[in-house]
Write a structure and sequence with these properties.
The chain has 295 residues and is α/β, with parallel strands linked by helices. It has a single domain, classed as Aldolase class I (TIM Barrel). Helices cover 37% and strands 18% of the residues. Helix 2 packs across helix 4.
Length: 295
């Protein structure tokens, strides 16, 4: 699909109501389709100022290129939907790329990458009422907990209330929990089995109900430890992809980790972004099809 930024700008500047109209007429589908699995492409990184992929610092900064890649990924068999912020989802709505897809809005984007307030991750993206108004299908939030940063408590409280509000609307919310720490001024997520286990336990118990809560979890450093880690909760879970590295070998190792973890009872699918949209080797089509094949 050839995407013209100028066409999008024309619609946005002259007919902003077209976004709401496109959302109203969009064909929806159940969260879980016939396959019983979920394959979501993620593109919510830019709103945190996280534009790097591998060694390229501004890889995700070209919006027309990103939209081309997203439309291509969404057109592949087995891809169920997309996770993104309002600006990207609304571009995709105008392009007609979200018909019959699961649309997941990104809710908290306040923890900007590299900021002193990164762990005070306030809800500056989609609100539950926005997701309802736009007829989107789910929300996603990030919960990074640093035991030495008081900002994490603010994030925990606002996360719990967001889960409550989503449940009131019977909207699924995907919670992405980490135990994190600052190393050399940079926030690093701990992917040890113990840390991931703790993060799952904490996230599962948030809010007044967990009826509509899903978990979005990383694969541990040692993939063989995931079976024990995922016994921490009965909540349905999807695996997150993240930045898998700079080389084709890194990409293959990530695929193998995902393959092992996808066989676990609570794991229902994958949510992967940069490694599929900007693969270390090969095309977007090949990367997406490979990931779908893992399911």
């Amino acid at each position: 699909m050839s995407i013209s930024v100028s066409d999008l700008v024309t619609v946005r500047s002259r007919h902003p109501e077209a976004i709401a109209e496109a959302a109203e007429r969009r064909v929806r589908r159940p969260l879980i389709g016939d396959s019983g699995r979920l394959m979501i492409v993620a593109a919510d990184h830019p709103a945190r100022g996280a534009l790097a992929v591998g060694g390229h610092k501004l890889a995700m900064a070209n919006r027309a290129d990103l939209l081309e890649r997203l439309c291509l990924a969404l057109s592949r068999p087995g891809v169920d939907g997309v996770l993104a912020t309002a600006d990207i989802l609304e571009d995709l709505l105008l392009l007609g790329a979200l018909e019959g897809k699961v649309v997941m809005g990104s809710m908290n984007r306040g923890g900007l990458a590299g900021a002193s307030f990164e762990l005070d991750d306030r809800f500056t993206g989609h609100r539950p009422q926005d997701l309802t108004r736009l007829r989107f299908d789910a929300g996603k939030l990030l919960l990074r907990i640093d035991y030495e940063d008081a900002g994490s408590l603010t994030t925990m409280v606002s996360t719990a209330r967001a889960i409550d509000e989503m449940a009131e609307r019977r909207l699924p919310v995907f919670v992405e929990p980490f135990i994190s720490r600052r190393t050399g001024g940079k926030v690093v997520n701990d992917l040890s089995a113990e840390a991931v286990t703790k993060s799952i336990a904490i996230a599962s118990g948030l809010a007044g109900t967990s009826a509509y809560t899903w978990l979005k979890v990383p694969v541990t450093d040692d993939a063989d430890e995931m079976a024990a880690v995922m016994e921490t909760s009965t909540l349905p879970a999807v695996l997150l992809g993240g930045d898998v590295g700079k080389s084709p070998q890194d990409q293959e190792e990530a695929y193998e980790k995902w393959r092992k973890a996808l066989g676990l009872p609570t794991v229902q699918g994958l949510v992967v972004g940069r490694s599929l949209l900007y693969p270390a080797e090969g095309s977007v089509e090949t990367a997406v099809d490979t990931a779908v094949g893992l399911l």
